[in-house]
Specification:
The complex is a heterodimer of chains A (135) and B (270). Chain A has 135 residues and is an alpha+beta fold. Helix content of chain A is 17%, strand content 33%. Chain A is built from two helices and six strands, in the order αβββαβββ. Chain B has three domains: 30 residues; 192 residues, no CATH class; 30 residues, no CATH class. The chains are: A alpha+beta (135), B alpha+beta (270). The interface between A and B is large, with 31 and 43 residues.
């Protein structure tokens, strides 16, 4: 499990347990922003497959930076906005949740204008571990 | 020797009585310790809400007892909200949230009770509402001026804190709003808040808002907060730390900063 690399079994179990709790919580999760979400198309879900470049665990929002290969074979960096590190931290999400280099699928409400960005919904790692809302 | 013993005994009894007075005084105040989170979304007045969704959802609104002038102003704000360009002061980062909006925030709260003041501490912002319970009065009219949190004086009625807040910024100054549907008040707002833990263990804050310039009758709004599990922590909130969402000062549109540090999206209003 990518985010559990280097942990003891107890630590890994604890991390997994926290993520399960976080996953359950996000079933009804509605992201609060300090700004308008008018730039996101919340009627449409886009599924991306890519590699984590960086997880910015910062205020006022966390950002998942994902490298995605487009239809022409060009690699594009997507910026996926999520909740505050404070609330996510209390729900078990950690800076290590999205380790650089990890392959992951991400669901997002995309930017209306087609820019490579969106509002984070959920993620699924290759081993089946899910983060956030993933139905 | 007898005199020394008597003195020691007197000092001991004096110490005991001081301790007892302090102890009893502290015991009289309720235990509001821990970390709390608001129940419900950031719609300020859930009791008068119409429409489905949150404060940024087009069509959702509340129904304060506004006079005609302020109802028209609220309607204009709702139209801006529906277009996604309502100017929320919090979006710019760095401006205190102010009262009563600070009772309507995501993230978490602490309610710090001391014998002379109560502090409402909000993680989001962060904000501090200071409520003086030491018997002082509001400053006279000439000695006060509008601020984000105004001036709050309070007293205890059993386990209920009752406090009176005035001298608040007008929403029309652009400094403050109540929620992102566009609820506003004038600088005549006067709020009496009653706070206590209810039978369900929720912190309940009932605000009775009077505003001679904006409302035709008192507006009563109740917010509730649940205590998070013991050991929960409160973290720094620094809105400018990595704010990748600047606001267009001309149109109110919220942009997104891309990985190269440049604005990545197009303002549909331009």
């Amino acid at each position: 499990m990518k985010s559990l690399r280097g942990m003891t079994i107890t630590e890994a179990f604890k991390q997994f347990f926290l993520l399960v709790i976080a996953g359950s919580f996000f079933v009804g999760y509605s992201a609060y922003s300090h700004h308008s979400n008018a730039m996101f198309d919340q009627q449409r879900v886009v599924e991306l497959s890519g590699t984590i470049k960086e997880f910015q665990f910062t205020n006022p929002h966390t950002w998942v930076q994902l490298m995605v290969e487009d239809d022409t074979g060009k690699t594009v960096e997507w910026s996926l906005e999520w909740g505050s590190p404070n609330n996510l931290g209390r729900q078990g999400i950690r800076p290590s949740t999205f380790p650089p280099g990890a392959d992951v699928m991400i669901k997002t409400y995309p930017m209306k204008d087609g820019s490579p960005g969106g509002l984070f919904i959920g993620a699924r790692f290759a081993d089946g571990q899910t983060i956030g809302r993933w139905e | 020797m007898a005199s020394k013993t008597k003195n020691r005994l007197t000092a001991f009894l004096l110490g005991c009585s001081c301790f007892c007075i302090t102890y009893v005084s502290a015991q009289e105040l309720p235990d509001w310790s821990g970390v709390w989170a608001m129940n419900g979304g950031t719609i300020f007045d859930l009791d008068t809400k119409t429409g489905e969704g949150g404060s940024t959802t087009p069509g959702v609104r509340e129904h304060p007892p506004y006079n005609q002038e302020f109802e028209a102003k609220y309607q204009a704000n709702l139209d801006l909200r529906d277009a996604g360009v309502f100017p929320d002061p919090n979006s710019y980062c760095g401006i205190p949230t102010g009262y009563p909006r600070l009772m309507n925030l995501p993230d978490v709260y602490e309610f710090a009770v001391t014998d002379k003041q109560v502090w409402i501490l909000t993680e989001n912002g962060p904000n501090v509402l200071r409520i003086y319970t030491d018997g002082r009065e509001h400053p006279s009219a000439i000695d006060r001026w509008p601020t984000h949190t105004g001036d709050s004086i309070g007293h205890w009625e059993g386990d209920t804190l009752v406090f009176d807040t005035l001298s608040l910024h007008s929403s029309e100054s652009g400094n403050t709003i109540i929620d992102r549907t566009g609820l506003i008040l004038s600088d005549a707002a006067h709020i009496v808040t009653r706070m206590a833990i209810n039978d369900e263990g929720l912190m309940e804050a009932q605000m009775t808002i009077e505003d001679a310039k904006a409302l035709v009758s008192p507006w009563v709004v109740t917010k509730r907060f649940r205590r998070l599990e013991e050991g929960s922590r409160v973290y720094d909130y620094a809105c400018n730390e990595n704010n990748r969402n600047p606001i267009d000062p001309n149109t109110g549109w919220t942009y997104t900063i891309g990985p190269d540090g440049q604005i990545m999206d197009i303002n549909p209003g331009q």
